[in-house]
TrEMBL record:
SUPFAM superfamilies: Immunoglobulin. One of its GO terms (molecular function) is signaling receptor binding. One of its GO terms (cellular component) is external side of plasma membrane. Residues 1-87 form the Ig-like domain. This is Ig-like domain-containing protein. The lineage of its organism: Eukaryota, Metazoa, Chordata, Craniata, Vertebrata. It comes from Mauremys mutica. It is found in: Membrane. Keywords: Immunoglobulin domain, Membrane, Signal, Transmembrane, Transmembrane helix. GO terms for biological process: regulation of cytokine production; T cell receptor signaling pathway.
Length: 181
């Protein structure tokens, strides 16, 4: 059924203020949550068939979570719940050699811009996991995460190694390699 003359409200945990509100045939911004201002758009291509979509631009980690789409016409109403999972694919890992440690060479891998917290690991040429000497995941000011993982390569170690950083949910991955003579 057409939703052109209905109220269509997208909201998070509270009915008001809304993430986006459409009423009286127009988008309404007075009741919009400040963090969504100028970032949302109701796609109305199929509104006459009762279908609308919400587009959120400039996705942020804080956008992660549940959304409710609420339709109301007179006294009848329906709603649907949607779970948005935000994933941020960070930068390609940067590998650096940082001197000697424990009879070997300390190699550090760094990457930033991930959401949620990434997983990082070292592998040798055959794809076998290498032990890490240290691992640190830190939040950035924008809600994203940066990671730093180190390993110590000894004479017995394979001298070509790769560092991979990935997201836990979708397994999106970035990888870099280094060869030490």
């Amino acid at each position: 059924m057409s939703a052109e003359n209905m109220e269509v409200r997208w909201f998070r945990s509270h009915f008001s203020p809304a993430v986006h509100l459409y009423r009286d045939g127009q988008d309404q911004y007075v009741e919009q949550m400040p963090e969504y201002q100028e970032r949302t758009e109701l796609l109305k291509d199929n509104i006459t068939n009762g279908r609308v979509s919400l587009r959120i631009r400039d996705i942020r980690p804080s956008d992660n979570g549940s959304y409710v789409c609420f339709f109301q016409s007179g006294v009848s109403y329906e709603n649907a719940i949607l779970e948005l999972q935000v994933e941020g694919l960070g930068s390609a890992p940067v590998i650096s050699v940082e001197g000697h440690q424990d009879g070997g060479i300390r190699v550090v891998c760094r990457s930033a811009g991930w959401y949620p917290q990434p997983e990082a690991q070292w592998r040798d040429l055959q794809g076998q996991l290498l032990p890490s000497a240290s691992e640190k995941i830190s939040p950035e000011s924008n809600g994203l995460f940066q990671t730093e993982i180190a390993t110590v390569l000894t004479e017995e170690s394979n001298q070509k190694v790769s560092c991979s950083v990935r997201t836990p949910r979708l397994s999106l991955e970035r990888q870099s390699a280094i060869s030490i003579a």
